[in-house]
Amino acid sequence: MLLASCAAAGAQQVPGEKRLRVVHTNDVHGHLLSAPTPWSGGRPVGGMAVLAAYFDSAAAHFDGPTLVLSGGDDMQGTAVSNLSAGRAAIQAMNAAGYDAAALGNHEFDWGQDTLRARVRESRFPWLAANLYLAGTTRNPAWVRPWVMIRRGGVKVAVVGVALAETPRIVLPDRVAGLEFGPEAPAIDRSARQARAAGADFVVVAIHSGAVCTEPGRAPEEASTGCTGDVLDVARALTERVDLIVGGHTHRRVVTEQGGVPVLEAGSYSEGFSVTDLARSGGRTRVAYRAVRVPWADSVHPDTAVARIVGAWDRRVRAVSESPVASLAAALDTVGGDFPLGRLMADGFRRVAHAQAALVNDGSIRRGLPAGTLTFGDLYELQPFKNMVVVQDVTGGVLRAALENALGKNGKPDANVAGITVAYDPAAPAGARVRSVRLDDGRELGDADRISLASSEFVAAGGDGYTMLRGVAARSSGVLDIDAVIAHLRALPQPAAAPTDKRWVPVRVDPAR
After folding, report:
1. Domain residue limits at 349
2. What is the pTM of this model?
3. Which residues contact 231 (CB under 8 A, 6 or more apart)?
4. What is the CATH number of the domain that holds 382?
5. 422-462 pLDDT, tens per residue?
6. CA distance linking residue 354 with residue 390, whole number of Å
């Protein structure tokens, strides 16, 4: 009785009241297998077969219909999913009983042809009310803005929303012919249509999230100090919705905006949210909200899902478990200038024979354990299969790229190789980089030229690196993951990551 403690499960039902339970995940990123996490104390967490068992329990212990929704980014991220181009994830989600999914930005990572194939294989609709054919207001035929689900005498409209900034953070060719509109107007339009069609509840599944200063620890504990795009979207709505389930920021979020519950359930199948809604007399009340950890040792995994995941795991295990190198010490991803990122930048620079390299931190998806490293470990570290490319840039363009890496808060969000960057974190945005020095100690002038290695994603202007978009890029012929593997293998074993600081904060007196 995993969810028997849920307050709404035993609440007194009002005559004529309509009730709904919504279970949701987000940013599973192909994590179909249970595994310990850095925070779980060795206990295995998550995996799609375990999640499916919790979903079944949530439905069994609620007097009313239950929907299972996804906030997007489901397929891309692990060898077991990526080596099947997401097919393994879709088969597992089908068996787990998902009812609808918002379209995440990483759903585009293998291109639109592959995405359409995965959509065709899905037994649930993919939703994106703000996705249009370029130059039109028409949604692509393979995605729907919203869907009405009738279950247990209740009509539930699920509105799906893609991340409006998707074109900025994926390769341009992946979204060619598509436009991503603002989220709130698309939700309002769909919500009006859904209410006119008689929806009892309108639930929004959006690939957008928040960050909270205090995320809350216990399942029932609300998050505080929350800010983020999903809350901005909720604040901009003019039509009434009953629940918003999000994603993208990989955080635990249990909050509300304007009386509407807003939830995000972490990432990597390590959490799921449960929300109960009850409607009577024209009013909707939220009976329960929570984000729970799906402990793998507290449930019997769903056997049908386990068979699917196990079969795919066996197919890729010979590749994913093959050793590629060894590491002297575990490496995490704490801070904007960290040893693992520097090691990866060194690898890019090495294979591209470039003077400098830049690796955006958003492409680094996990830490690495000490000891033997497998191909699966490295695949999860950098699962995007981006080509390492080289661009001949001026010092001024590189300085602009480094300013972009400092972001809005003046903290590095990229790792570099071949250069040392002195920056003033207190200076205004655009004026933080004080100097860029090459490894030989020479300061790089704005008119000097330098060869810069990065991923094709960064070179194409992704993550705000628009200053690189117009610079010709030549391919190294090496994928990002292979660059890191080759560099690791070239180091003395067990390999050690570089410890030198390549971003050096300085304080410049504005009066000088």
Report:
1. 323-505
2. 0.85
3. 210, 255, 257, 262
4. 3.90.780.10
5. 999 999 999 999 999 999 999 999 999 999 999 999 999 98
6. 7
